[in-house]
Amino acid sequence: MKKGSNLLNRDHFKKDRARDSQQEIEAAALSARPDLKHPQVVLSLLEADQVVAEKQRTRFGRRPLSFRVRLMLWGLRVYVIIMLVIVAISVFRAVRGGG
Amino acid sequence: MAGLTDKTEMRAYQPAQPTTESAAASPAGQQLAGLLTHEDLDRAQDRWRVARARWGGRRSAPLRSLSLIWLLVGPGVLVFLGENDAPSMLSYSAIGTRYGIGFFLPFVVLTFVMGFVVQEMTVRLGAVTHRGHAELIFDRFGKFWGLFSMADLMLGNFLTLVTEFIGVRAGLSFFGVRPGVAVGGALLLVLGAIATGRYWTWERITLGLAIFNGLFIPAALLAHPNWQAVGRAFLTWSPLPQGNRPEIALLLLSVVGATVTPWMLFFQQSAVVDKGMQPRDITAGQLDTLLGTVLAAVFAVATVLATAPLFRHGINAADFQGAEFAQALQPWIGHVGAMLFALGILEAGLVAAIAISTSSAYAFGEVFGTAHSLNRPLREAWPFYLILVGSACVAAGLVLVPHAPLEFIVLTVNVIAVLAMPPALAFLLLLVNDRDLMGEHANSFWQNFAGITVTVLLVCAGLGFGIATVFPGILGG
């Protein structure tokens, strides 16, 4: 690629997009100022699952949770609830003591 | 550029696989070309700058690296300087005042090491999956666990946000600014940062503000610390804190809570996604996180050193807030030092208010599937901005309500953060070990060892606090 050249200003994107190789598009993306009005340039700069429409179209599915993992998650949940009650007691004492 | 118009297509959810394939070369490339949003264009422009910096042109290798780091630095520095927030700085000030130079100095640094271990995982998760933390938890573990984790986050975020505005009010009260004006000004700043509708600009504005966390360094130098004692404290972890042991346990927990909190996980991962980072940027993201860790640790230690004169002179600072610390320090660090200290507290509150309200907005958007990017204009992502501004407004309003339970909030905020952290870390570890998601970027044995150690330490810290509270006599307090 010629340094400083802007391949995106050329008309060949419009004339024969199919002929453009991926390398050309990526090289164009590295040119002085990319023409972001051209969707192919935008897409060449982003990974497939980085595009908002693709992210909305697809979701990572649920992962199966083993018994041990579920037990751990429940254990931690119970831990948080008990500790929050303890915090409430502690703060109640502190506020009452201070007041 | 066309927006997202094909609703039928949008409903047809398909399981995703993380990919490093360029969108242009993907099978859906042609279809996506007609569905690009403003967010995609802004992100593509950011990626173009990164690609240019990486390619380098005529630039020398060091210049190219610097340019790349400048472009990719952000989420890591922001999350750590954001977490050096008002309640954290007040915790460090309390340490300096009550215990001086000693055990707590290396302990503070240790908490930052723990913070780095945790936050580095979010960089990899965000760069590989391009999904925020809340979205991944809902997707992989389902609504039931997702809602629990959101409840922890939202409660913690709201309470923390309130304390940030308390910090802003306290910092400005040193200069005689009325509470309404202080809090209103802070809200305007939050609005100003998002008004640009561009992640990059928001990030640079917030980074520019965050660097003022360094004001604690000149304040510390003006306190003329005993450098020999500082060196000895780091080498020997002594002298150990003396006195009321339950109080020490609470302070230990609050120092951990000052560095490792759930909002940081959600914020950094979402910011990495919004910045458009890709797997090839992971090393830069790790450097960014390391830089944030080092800066925040230095500023935290500086805060302890700045307030150490109050310990030397036996000042009782039990009920001090930001401004009282600054006023009490004035005889020893001078008016300029006290002013720098008050400004530091103000900055800590401001930056954290921006980061935490953004963290809530990101999580909300990820869970409810609405647009959630700072690259989106208001008309496209109004629920995102509504949550961001709304949460800040409610928290700011609460600070101005007479007789609001602010003391309750300040006392609990860091403790709640620590207690909510183990479940958040469990989800993080499960996600980052999920090879379907992470592939080669999944945790190594040592990364798991470090992550599990931090989780166990946090659970133990919480249990220690619980025991000290329920059975105060057991620790000899």
- Compute the number of helices of chain B: 20
In round numbers, the mean pLDDT of chain A is 71
Low-confidence stretches of chain A: 1-21
Q: Which residue ranges of chain B are poorly predicted, with pLDDT under 50 across at least 5 consecutive positions?
A: 1-13
Biggest beta-sheet profile of chain B: none
How would you characterize the largest beta sheet of chain A? none
Please give the oligomerization state of what you see: heterodimer
| Bulk shape of chain A | elongated
| Helix percentage range of chain A | 55-70%
What's the gyration radius of chain B in Å? Answer: 22 Å
Please give the domain count of chain A.
2
Could you tell me the number of beta strands of chain A? 1
Indicate the radius of gyration of chain A in whole angstroms: 28 Å
Share of residues in helices of chain B: over 70%
> Helices and strands of chain A, in N-to-C order?
HHHHEH
What structural category arises from helix and sheet content of chain A? Answer: mainly alpha
Largest interface pair: A-B, 53 and 80 residues
Span of the ends, CA to CA of chain B: 67 Å
Write the layout of secondary structure elements.
The complex is a heterodimer of chains A (99) and B (477).
Chain A: H1 12-15, H2 22-29, H3 39-45, H4 52-57, E1 58-59, H5 67-98
Chain B: H1 7-11, E1 14-15, H2 29-33, H3 38-55, H4 61-72, H5 75-83, H6 86-99, H7 104-129, H8 133-173, H9 179-194, H10 199-210, H11 216-222, H12 227-236, H13 245-257, H14 262-275, H15 282-312, H16 322-368, H17 382-400, H18 406-432, H19 435-438, H20 445-470
Describe this structure as you would to a colleague.
The complex is a heterodimer of chains A (99) and B (477). Chain A has helices at 12-15, 22-29, 39-45, 52-57, 67-98; one strand at residues 58-59. Chain A folds into two domains: 7-57, no CATH class; 62-99. The longest helix of chain A has 32 residues, at 67-98. With 99 residues, chain A is mostly helical. The radius of gyration of chain A is 28 Å and the shape is elongated. Chain A has five helices and one strand. Chain B is mostly helical and 477 residues long. Chain B has a single domain (76-475), classed as Amino acid/polyamine transporter I (Up-down Bundle). In chain B, helix 6 runs antiparallel to helix 16 and helix 8 crosses helix 14 (262-275). The interface between A and B is large, with 53 and 80 residues. Strand 1 (58-59) of chain A pairs parallel with strand 1 of chain B, so a sheet runs across the interface.
